Amino acid sequence: MQRGSEAGSPWRVGVLFSQTGVTAIIERSQLHGALLAIDEVNEAGGVHGREIQPVIYDPGSVVARYGELAEHLLSEDGVNVIFGCYMSSTRKEVLPVIERRNALFFYPTLYEGFEYSANVIYGGAAPNQNSVPLASYVMENYGNRFYFVGSDYIYPRESNRVMRNIVRQGGGEVVGERYVSLEAGPDDFDDILREIDRLRPDVIFSTVVGTGTINLYRAYRRAACRDLGVPIASLTTNEAEVAAMGAEAAAGHITAAPYFRNIQTAANRRFLERYQRRFGTVSDVTSCCEAAYFQVHLFANALRSTNTTDTDRLREALRGADFDAPQGRVKIDADNNHTYLQSRIGRVDEHGEYIVEMEVTRPIKPDPYLVVPALNDWSLRLMPPREGLINS
Ligand code: ACM
Predict the structure, then answer these.
(1) Which protein residue's CA is at the shortest distance from atom 1 of ligand 1?
(2) Rounded to an integer, what distance in angstroms lies between the CA atom of residue 385 and that of residue 293?
(3) Greatest alpha-carbon span in the chain
(4) How far is residue 288's CA from residue 346's CA, in Å, rounded to a whole number?
(5) Which of 381, 377, 375, 367 is nearest to 113 (CA)?
(6) Residue 2 predicted with pLDDT over 50
(7) For the segment 42-53, what is each residue's pLDDT rounded down to a tens digit?
(8) CA 13 remoteness from chain centre
(9) Same-domain status, 241 and 286
(10) Is ligand 1 within 6 A of the CB of residue 87?
(11) Are residues 15 and 117 in the same domain?
């Protein structure tokens, strides 16, 4: 296993994002974020004169493949550090492989919380960083009758359990809850949309992921219940999926995330310029792409201090490590391996761009077990965005 002894040879890292299958749109954006950061590190001379070399596999959005490929990376390719995964079901496949070999896994995706592994660095939002702000924003602006629709796997079901508790805590109710298959097609939402028409919720909370997202938003645009004028609020719908579904289907809907492509920070402007140069477009830049990007930089900075990919040494170097990310300053919480993140509410405009309507004024400490349930936590108060406040 590579630990960093051979001078001049590259630092090999595993990169495990699907480029095909139902979650390819979002995972390709994560792959691009990771590759851009690797390029930046290498163009600046690498780490101790050695380049970072990605060993890339495409699991094809097939859940079991993530575990198999993680095993292959660790046992055959000799890597000790892996960046990867979008769906929580795929992270759960990788987790035992990583733990068994005491390797290090960077997970740049929002998720349902209630997990800790000493072998994982969690770079996406936990529920206290996105579900709580989204629920409080919706209840203040639309009402407290929620309808849940999600893809049928662990993240939507568990994240809805958390959201239901938050909604109840705020005096609201969940009037309906339905799940569709990961492969949900254009007609698979018809019954659900008829039920929404009948139940007349104040908001549709979507945890649908991947291509199903595109089909849901397009079906909603065609459905009778569209006249209710209620928004779809989500934690997963993102710029790349909006580009795929078209601005007409996405306009007016809401997402809560630490990062939106449109935010006005100096670090984000630099990031977008480099991304455009590298990939010829910024249409697929998302919060999960940005998380993959800053996690590679956090890793490279830690590697500079350890000069080895030994997990125990890297973990120690990553405790409390921070970075000026495009979203603002992020920091790994030494208590739980999750990340202090910004929190923002964005609404899609008529051109398909997320416009930030509210944001917190400082990064939120991750609380993956919701030890401090906090609908009324003042640290989460959302404010209208103040241009140039962060990082500029
Ligand atoms: C997810 O499955 N964590 C989006």
Answers:
(1) 87
(2) 23
(3) 67
(4) 15
(5) 367
(6) yes
(7) 999 999 999 999
(8) 20
(9) no
(10) yes
(11) yes
